[in-house]
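Support case: user asked for a sample of complex input and structure output to validate their parser. Sending the pair below.
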Amino acid sequence: MESIDIIGAASILVAGLTIAIGSVGPALGEAKALAQALSALAQQPDEATTITRTLFVGLAMVESTAIYCFVISIILIFANPFWNHVVQNGG
Amino acid sequence: MDISPDSIVLWRWGPLTLNATILFTWAIMGLLVLVSWLVTRKLSVEPDLSRWQMALETIVTSIREQIREITHRDPDDYLPFLGTLFLFISVSNFLSFVPGYQPPTGSISTTSALAVCVFFAVPVFAIAKDGPKAYFRHYVKPSVFMLPFHIIGEFSRTLALAVRLFGNVMSGTMIVGILLSVAPLFLPVAMHALELLIGQIQAYIFAILAAVYIASASQAHVTEINKEEEKEKSAQHSKEGE
């Protein structure tokens, strides 16, 4: 196989794996946080504003790991530096 | 496919290039300044307020409310910085329904610039509030061994701030672009609507996180100011009641 084939195949494969594995953890974590927040809301409806705000901020922080994975896989597919290097050198 | 509006170069003169990010950033700045200037030109306290003044007052008071709830302090010091961050990101994400518009927050250069602003604003606000000694002491709390972790934390949260906003906005434009080629009739519209909501949430989160970082850097809670403001508020309410 030429290097461009290997780079293309590896990029696509790893991009898929990155987003697949990387979204499992944050999804579980967010589900847990949401469930906790719902039970807290049911117990203390008066504190709704504080709970909701903390929930949003927390979800955003948990979600950022999934966003990192997404950005990595997007870079691998659309702006791959290795691919560009090989293409420029006439690979 | 482009993953950033940086690569859309509209005009080039020597080493200077004008790309879509810069152009739309200027457009948003101009829009914010123009609208604020037009509305605040004729402020009135008479009962028949103009609708625009009502809208602007609502925005400013709710931002003040949020800042006060998070920092437990007088929001006036933080309002210019945090309010500007929120309004800029919010308007930049909101305008994405305009055809041909590329949100500048979908470019990593804009979001990292904003995150760097927050990075420098944290020590500036904390030192202005408590003095340099109190600020630098929090790096060695609870012990000196925590110093490298504090420093790593400062940088990693700045990176997280930049990449989170970039990833969310960029993924929105990208998903709509991909759906347009897969199912062009209805689905992109629904995703675009969801994207408008996500954009507002991200603007809120960016401003809230900046507020949390600034508030946590200067730890001494000034509760007296809060009490005074609450007193003022209740006095105003009782006046309005009369």
